Amino acid sequence: MTRCATSVTTVVLMIITPVLAAAHTGEPLEPHDLWRAWSFEPGTVLPLVVTALLYLRGTHGPARASSAQAGCFWAGWSVLALSLVSPVHSLGGVLFSAHMVQHELLMLVAAPLLVLSRPLAPFVRGLPFAWRRAAGRWSKTNWVRPMWRRLTEPLTAWLLHAAALWIWHAPALFQATVDSETVHAAQHLSFLLTALLFWWSLIYAQGRAGYGAGVVYIFTTAVHTSILGALLTFSPVVWYPIYRETTRVWGLTPLQDQQIGGLVMWIPAGVLYLAAGLALFAAWLRQSEVISARSRYAE
Q1: Computed over its alpha carbons, how large is the radius of gyration of the chain?
Q2: Banded pLDDT at 206 (limits 50, 70, 90)
């Protein structure tokens, strides 16, 4: 645990040091300032540190997570941290394409990795004993379990995630995220939470029996996100005028920047959805073979 805690502290210091060294001028980010453009927002860094420490505490001793689960957690946590505090975050304020990269990292890399790590139990075990008992009582209340079941139904999670994607890409709302850190945080939180629900519902909520339906939900998500990406790529007009004055110093016109962002949502994201769909399909086939073998044995 000491070694892991030291690693977390090192990461935090790596985040803080460049920020403290760089003067925040309020001017749009330019290429020569990119390496110093780390974001040290307490509302972002503190939850990251707290979740890391809770996981360390919750997986210490006899309740250790498997190496695969621990690897998924730390990989997902690292991607989440880098997407929110590294220069990718600041670059998203001046390039729409960088903003799209950040969103895909949140929803298509960090979220499924965190879900695969199954971190809820370690988080609860990492709480002080009194808080742990209170959390256990709260989770057993009459309204929590039914609400959790409804939220993690694949169709509900699919609809929530799709709604978050399309609503936040409306020009007025998306531009507000560049002007306001509060709105930006709300956008990221809705993307991350709905993505966590989406992947959780596909992998765990319905169990192995739901793998076939999961393939359909992933395919339809790939389709509607590809449509949004294609609309951005082929649009003859700039959807987000707030980027008109910030792309030129990066060697792009606003329309080129938008087209690259659309391609990021369309091609790389589509490939990741395809890979996830194939993985679920393979798991579905394996499960079907097991059930078939058991039936033949029973006969």
Answers
A1: 21
A2: low
* Three-class SS state of 94: coil
Answer yes or no: are the C-beta atoms of 174 and 232 closer than 8 Å: no
Tens of pLDDT, residues 161-171:
999 999 999 99
C-alpha 18: how far from chain center: 24
**Range of the structural domain that residue 68 is part of:** 2-298
Instruction: Look at residue 147 in the predicted model and tell me its pLDDT.
Output: 86
The rounded distance, in Å, linking the Cα atoms of 88 and 186 is: 18
Q: Label residue 148 exposed, middle or buried (CB < 10 Å: 0-12, 13-18, 19+).
A: middle
State how far the Cα of 10 lies from the Cα of 135, in Å rounded to an integer.
31
Is the CA virtual torsion 193, 196, 200, 201 positive or negative? positive
Cβ–Cβ under 8 Å, residues 157 and 165? no
Residue type, 133: R
Cα four-point dihedral sign 63, 6, 44, 246: negative
Whether the CB-CB separation of 165 and 225 falls below 8 Å is answered with yes
Q: How wide is the angle at C-alpha 267 spanned by C-alphas 263 and 273, nearest 5°? A: 135
Phi (first) and psi of residue 28, to 5 degrees:
-55, 140
Whether the pLDDT of residue 239 is over 70: the answer is yes
How far is the C-alpha of 223 from the C-alpha of 270, rounded, in Å? 8
Q: How many domains does the chain have?
A: 1
